[in-house]
Structure formats: structure tokens, C-alpha cells
């Protein structure tokens, strides 16, 4: 079984705050919202159902998503459901969920984290984490995921699944999908991909006044009585309780199986036609940071001998560490988007980024939530002209004012030695394009 790094509660709360801000900054009429419907079967999952009914078949299900998928919730619940429903087949999962990340990272890591393990079915869950993304960005990323998948594994079926939060539910209370899901529906329509909105029942209960978005699960009779029979969804209005909210998500998938199965006709390879959007990220790729030129100060954190490197080995196979001022990473690429897949945390500092002949910019690898280490991405450039670009990243001698930064999220420096440092942990290059000499 392939697993992701355990998602962190602090990271989840951070993302909740981001969503509350992001969704508040976009007007509902900026993008046409589609009517809410729990299941759009479209062309179904023909290859999956054919194989599931084959005695002795080994079926891998990939789960590409954020922290809601990383939870011990709808993901393992659906895996168990499929095993019980099709007992003659053997099911296993590819857990490619990373908390606090959206399709803009998923499109770069889908090959390494999912496709290289050859799934038969892939669920894609990014509607919540893409809540603040523009529709065009969602088009690029979601279509990139689809086209990469069917180019590499034409017989792998795909299903988009959508989740909901208190911040994203207003549109659903009016009978519409939230904006992110509405954008994803355009890609699903174009490719005949089935979609399931797992939050329809959640929205229904909320509209009826029967839902408590944020509360602990009641344990005593007194606590249950105080709820007056209402359904408790989540401890934070986003990440469902395994015992309640995730059961609603499971039920939505179970209800959707018959209509999706009915729509599944002749199994066979999925054929890629013209793209929905020409600027989609079909060419997105994750390249080892060792493909760049690293100065001597950078060292490989070999997972065979380094505990920190081992911790991230299932996501970064060539994780390096640099910490000395003046250490550099340089490379050239031809393409339109570039980022560095890295880890940020208490001991990290800041880097000086130079793209082409543009003025250098200082980018901290430390934020208000850096009381622990987590995966992140350092954006070098996006929406660039498709030509050759040069990149230099240099570790700055100065540290950001970590106490001031932490205070923005009511965090404090507990042990000064933990936060002292100018470390930079690059693991890969995220690129829409190609590296060039």
C-alpha cells in the first residue's frame, strides 16, 4: 500500500482560513455555475467494472487529492466497499493525497505519485483546495491530469469527486455547484468523465437546518440532547468526522455506482482528442532537483541513511539540503511555468530568485505556520512566454524575522535553536516545458 505523509491539523486549519478568504474575494457571477446534481455518469467507468467482475483480477485504485482524501475517511471506506461488492477481485490503493494542496500541484505529481503505480481507476478530489483558483487555472490543471493519465495509461478510468465546506456551500444552497466544481465539470463534459458530488446530502441537511458544521462528536446523553437531533459534520467545518461526514461521502459514491455502471458500455482504451484549452498542463512534469546544477554546499538527504530524507522519500526521491549563504541552484528551461517542489519549516530561511534578466526577488521559505516541516512549492514563474528561460536560486545570508512572521498566526518560537537557520530543502523541479542545456 502506498501512503502519503500524514496530514497535519495545523495545515488543515491554515487551508480553511485561506478558503474563507479566497472564496470571499470572488463574486458568484464571475463564472457560470452549473446546476447541482449528485452524479453525472457520462461515459462511466467501463474498464473498471469489467475488471472488477473478473475473478482473480488485481485492481489498483488511485486517490489523488488533498487532506480530505488523506483522512481515514471516504478513501479507505470506498476501498472496503469495492472489496465487499466485488469479492472475487483483489483491491489495493495508491494513496496520493497531500493536505493543503490543489490541482496546481497534483498535475505535476500525478505521474510519480499515481501513474507510475499503474492504477485501474483514479479518483481526483481537488474541489475544496481549488476553491480560490481561477477557472482557467483549474481547466489547465485538471485537463493536464486527464491527458497525462490517458496518454500513459489509456485504459485507466477516471472519476472526479467533489467535496464541500461551510465556506463553499452557499452556491449549493441555491442549487448550484461551487465555482471550482463548476469549472471541473467543463473538463468532465469534454472527456466524458463521470463526476460525483459527495456533498449534496451535506448541503441538503444544511439547508434544512439539520446540520452542525463545526462541533465535536457528542459522547454523553446530555451532549446529544443539546444537539436536538442535528447532524454533526466536522470538527472544523471542512474535514468531516470519520464517523459522520465521511459516511455521507461514502453513501454518495455508493448511490452513484448503479447509474455510472449503467452508462459504462464497451471497455477499451480512452482516446485523446482535441484539448479543451490549448494551454493545459499536459506537459507538466516533476524532475529531480539533481537535474539542475547545485553548488557544492547542497547535500543529498539519502533516505537510506538520513532520517529526514526517509520521512519524505515517498514524495521526493532526491531531496537536498543547502544552508550556507551563497549556495546556488541554476538551470535553463524552455516552457511556460516553473516551480521548485520543496519543504519549508522552522529552520528554513529565504532565497534570492532570479528569472532571466528580471530583478532578483527575495522569497521566504518560512511562513506563519512553520512550527513544523511540510511540503510546499516555490513559484519561479507562470504564464511565461514559451521560450528558453534561465533560473538562479541563491540562499540569502539573512533570516526572515521569524518571531514576527509566526505571530501572524498566534504562534511563537518555543526553542530558539529549532528556528535558527537559513536552510533550503529543494526536492524537484515542477515544469511545464523541458530542461535545456
Task: Using brief descriptors, characterize the structure shown.
alpha/beta; disordered N terminus; 437 residues; eight-stranded antiparallel beta sheet; six-stranded mixed beta sheet
Provide an overview of this structure.
This protein is an alpha/beta fold. The chain folds into two domains: 9-263, SGNH hydrolase (Rossmann fold); 284-436, Galactose-binding domain-like (Jelly Rolls), CATH 2.60.120. It is 30% helix and 24% strand. The protein contains 14 helices and 18 strands. It has helices at 9-24, 46-52, 67-70, 74-85, 103-113, 135-152, 170-173, 179-191, 200-207, 221-226, 245-263, 307-311, 402-407, 416-419; strands at residues 39-40, 58-65, 90-97, 121-125, 157-162, 195-197, 211-214, 231-234, 284-288, 293-294, 299-300, 320-321, 328-344, 350-355, 361-364, 374-381, 387-395, 425-436. The strands form four sheets. Strands 9, 10, 13, 14, 15, 16, 17 and 18 form an eight-stranded antiparallel β-sheet that branches. α6 links the parallel β4 and β5. α4 (74-85) crosses α11. The protein is globular. Mean pLDDT is 93; it is low at 1-28.
Q: Which topology of the largest domain does CATH recognise?
A: Rossmann fold
Label the overall shape.
globular
β-strand amount: 15-25%
Uncertain segments of ≥5 residues (pLDDT<50)? Answer: 1-28
In a nutshell, what does this entry contain?
With 437 residues, the protein is α/β, with parallel strands linked by helices.
Amino acid at each position: 500500500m502506498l501512503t502519503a505523509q500524514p496530514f497535519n491539523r495545523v495545515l488543515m486549519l491554515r487551508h480553511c482560513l485561506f478558503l474563507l478568504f479566497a472564496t470571499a474575494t470572488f463574486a458568484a457571477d464571475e463564472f457560470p455555475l452549473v446546476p447541482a446534481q449528485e452524479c453525472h455518469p457520462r461515459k462511466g467507468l467501463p474498464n473498471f467494472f469489467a475488471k472488477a467482475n473478473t475473478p482473480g483480477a488485481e485492481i489498483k485504485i488511485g486517490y489523488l487529492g488533498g487532506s480530505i482524501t488523506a483522512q481515514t475517511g471516504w478513501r479507505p471506506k470506498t476501498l472496503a466497499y469495492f472489496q465487499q461488492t466485488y469479492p472475487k477481485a483483489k483491491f489495493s490503493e495508491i494513496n496520493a493525497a497531500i493536505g493543503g494542496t490543489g490541482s496546481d500541484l497534483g498535475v505535476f505529481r500525478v505521474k510519480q505519485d499515481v501513474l507510475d503505480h499503474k492504477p485501474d481507476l483514479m479518483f481526483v478530489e481537488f474541489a475544496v483546495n481549488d476553491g480560490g483558483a481561477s477557472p482557467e487555472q483549474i481547466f489547465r490543471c485538471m485537463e493536464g491530469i486527464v491527458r497525462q493519465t490517458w496518454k500513459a495509461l489509456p485504459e485507466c478510468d477516471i472519476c472526479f469527486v467533489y467535496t464541500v465546506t461551510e465556506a463553499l456551500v452557499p452556491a449549493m444552497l441555491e442549487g448550484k455547484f461551487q465555482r471550482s466544481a463548476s469549472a471541473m465539470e467543463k473538463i468532465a463534459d469534454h472527456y466524458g468523465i463521470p463526476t460525483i458530488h459527495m456533498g449534496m446530502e451535506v448541503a441538503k441537511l444544511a439547508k434544512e437546518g439539520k446540520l452542525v458544521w463545526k462541533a465535536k462528536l457528542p459522547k454523553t446523553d446530555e451532549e446529544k440532547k443539546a444537539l436536538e437531533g442535528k447532524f454533526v459534520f466536522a470538527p472544523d467545518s471542512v474535514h468531516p468526522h470519520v464517523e459522520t461526514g465521511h459516511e455521507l461521502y461514502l453513501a454518495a459514491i455508493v448511490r452513484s455506482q448503479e447509474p455510472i455502471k449503467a452508462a459504462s458500455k464497451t471497455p477499451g482504451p480512452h482516446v485523446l482528442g482535441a484539448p479543451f484549452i490549448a494551454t493545459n498542463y499536459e506537459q507538466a512534469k516533476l524532475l529531480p532537483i539533481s537535474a539542475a546544477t547545485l553548488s557544492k554546499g547542497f547535500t543529498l538527504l539519502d533516505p537510506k541513511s538520513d532520517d529526514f530524507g526517509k520521512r519524505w522519500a515517498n514524495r521526493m526521491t532526491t531531496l537536498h539540503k543547502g544552508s550556507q549563504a551563497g549556495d546556488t541552484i541554476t538551470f535553463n528551461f524552455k516552457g511556460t511555468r516553473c516551480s521548485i517542489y520543496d519543504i519549508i519549516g522552522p529552520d528554513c530561511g529565504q532565497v534570492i530568485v532570479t528569472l532571466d534578466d528580471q530583478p532578483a526577488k527575495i522569497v521566504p521559505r518560512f511562513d506563519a505556520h512553520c512550527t513544523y516541516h511540510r511540503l510546499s512549492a516555490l513559484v519561479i514563474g507562470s504564464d511565461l512566454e514559451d521560450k528558453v528561460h534561465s533560473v538562479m536560486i541563491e540562499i540569502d545570508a539573512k533570516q526572515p524575522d521569524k518571531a514576527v512572521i509566526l505571530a501572524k498566526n498566534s504562534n511563537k518560537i518555543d526553542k530558539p535553536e529549532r528556528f535558527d537557520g537559513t536552510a533550503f530543502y529543494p526536492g524537484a523541479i515542477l515544469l511545464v516545458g523541458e530542461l535545456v542545456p
